[in-house]
Structures are given as C-alpha cells and as structure tokens.
Amino acid sequence: MTDLDQMRAHMLTAIDAAAGLDALDAVRVEALGKQGRVTQMLKTLGAMSADQRQVEGPRIQGLRTAVADAIAARKETLERAALDARLASETLDMTLPADAPLTGTIHPVSQVMDELAEIFADLGFAVATGPEIEDDWHNFTALNIPESHPARAMHDTFYCEPQASTNGAARMLLRTHTSPVQIRTMLSQKPPIRIIAPGRTYRSDSDATHTPMFHQVEGLVIDKGITLGHLKWTLETFLKAFFERDDIALRLRPSYFPFTEPSAEVDVGYTIVKGKRVIGGSEGWMEVLGSGMVHRKVIAACGLDPDEWQGFAFGCGIDRLAMLKYGMDDLRPFFDGDIRWLKHYGFSALDVPTLSGGVGA
Ligand code: DAH
Hints:
It is a single chain. The protein is of the alpha+beta class. It has two domains: 3-86; 108-345, 2-Layer Sandwich (BirA Bifunctional Protein, domain 2). 40% of the residues lie in helices and 20% in strands. The chain has twelve helices and ten strands. The strands form two sheets. Strands 1, 4, 5, 6, 7, 8, 9 and 10 form an eight-stranded mixed β-sheet that branches. The chain has a two-stranded antiparallel sheet with strand order 2-3. The longest helix is centred in the N-terminal third of the chain and has 40 residues, at 50-89.
C-alpha cells in the first residue's frame, strides 16, 4: 500500500466514524482545509518535474475528490438522522385532553365572509374563488384595463419578479381586486351566472384605513334581460340583511370603472347616535361599494355575445363592512394577531351565522 492509499483509507475511516456534524467538519478541515493534509499535498505538485506531476497529479486529485465525496455523503446521512430524531421528538399527542378552555375566536373578517355567503346563498348566488397570484390579463386586460390605462397606475400593484422562462413577458402580480374572478367564472361556467367571490386582495398602501392586504367581495350576475333595477334591488336586499335594519337608505352616484358601463358608486345612509355613525337613516352618506352593468367588452373578452347576455357586478371592501357593522375604527389591528383584540371583537366558533338566527348573531 502506498502512503497515498494509506492516507485515503485513514481519512475515509475517520469520515465514516464521525458521529456528528461537528466531528465531520473537523475531519474536513484536517483533510481539505487551508492547512489540511490533502491541500498540502496538492501544493507539492508545483515543485515536481513535469513527468512526476503527470503521475502524481491525478492521484492526489483523485484522493481529494474521494474525500470530498465521502464527506458530502456522510453529511447528508448525519443531517437526515438529525431531522428524523427531531421529528420523532416533536410529535404532538392529539389524543391528550385539552387542559385549558379553547381561547380561539372567529376573526370578524371570516365572520363577515360567512354572513355574506349566507345572505347571497338565499338569493341564489354561489361562492366562487380565484388565485391571489394572478396574471395581467385576468386582473387588468380582460377587465377592459389595457396596458396604458391610467387605472393600472391607480392600483399600486405588487408585481412578482419576472420569470426567466418567459423573458419577463408574463409578469405575475398579486391581484389588486376580486374582479378577475368575474373573468375566471365567465370563462369556466355557462350563463346564467350568479356568484359572489370573497377573498384577499393586495395593494401597496398603508395607513389607518388601508393595509397592503385587504379583503373584497365581488358580485356577478350574467343572464338575459338584466337591468340596473336588478342591481339596485340586490344591493338593497343585501345591505338590509347584512346590517339587520329595514331603514337602510341607498344612494347610487354615477361613477367610472373600466369594466362596467354605466357605473355607480353606492353610498349608504347613516345617523349619528351618541357621537358615532350608525348605519340606517340618511343624516349623512358613506361610500360602501362600486358597481355597474358589466361592460360589453368584458362580456366579449370571455367569449360571450354581449347582445345575448347582460349582467351587473359589484365590488365591496369586506374589512370596511366589518368595521361599520361591528364598530372598529382602525383597520390595522385586524391583522396584528393580538389575542386581546381577537377576544374582544372575535366570534364564537359555534355561532354560525344563519338568516333565521340573524346573520350577525
Ligand atoms: N374592482 C373595483 C376596485 O377594486 C371595485 C368594483 C367596482 C368592482 C365596480 C366591480 C364593479 O365589480 O362593478 O376598486
């Protein structure tokens, strides 16, 4: 056996015997570190004659590769064993009885989403969903917001890093509204369509009434002979059921959205009670949602004939609905995860909203 063979055998044994990652690293330093034995041998190549180097070079390099490979393999084994040990020690026994009463509550946003689903189910609406990481076409173009449209700038969009494979052409984004679910629904279902789409939306905006992630609910009806009258009745019925009051007053103001024509912003009336705004009556007005008749171009972009099919749509901030109904005046604590806030404003998991029981019960 040559010295080199002996050294190889010695090192491989030491690698195999290393009981932990620290011990293995010590072996690595001793062999391949700056002052390591293999490194030192590689340095001797410079002083050799060309003939000698041709023989010794591959042998020493071979030793280095064998040692490095053995260290990598041993490292993987040790890491896997460490992970297995951790997983084995971190099991949670789900059969143990809970020793404290359950403290979790249903977040007001989840509660309001459940209330919306309940109210709209009664009107024949299904719940639809779409991805939060959306593409430009569904979020903007198909909604009649072309590339150069100023509405794109207004949305303060979060864009994803361009993907190398698409040459940056198809940049994904975090959906800025729930309106792309209109498009996805029209593309995947045949009309008549009646859906609401509650979910998370994102814009680069942050103050007392704006958070970078917030919630919206979209409504969409596509059928034959749909008019603004249907829209107004639906919104009135929804808001009366939601706020659990019959004296809800609505005001539709002409507005502009690229995906509806005509468009209307909807205000709901409020009364001042003990210095606080309470929904109902008409002492003042507060904007709650955007709406309108679905634009012909949007219907056509989804492959439907706008002469045959019409519809209405609306979009509404869920967080704001929750604030108005349950009396919070700052949006930011909604997403702080503070257990005291959740205990105060949250709902019991057993209190499922039903129309008969009162949706806010
Ligand atoms: N997508 C709009 C927004 O985020 C809200 C909206 C307005 C939705 C009018 C609609 C609509 O469906 O018809 O500001």
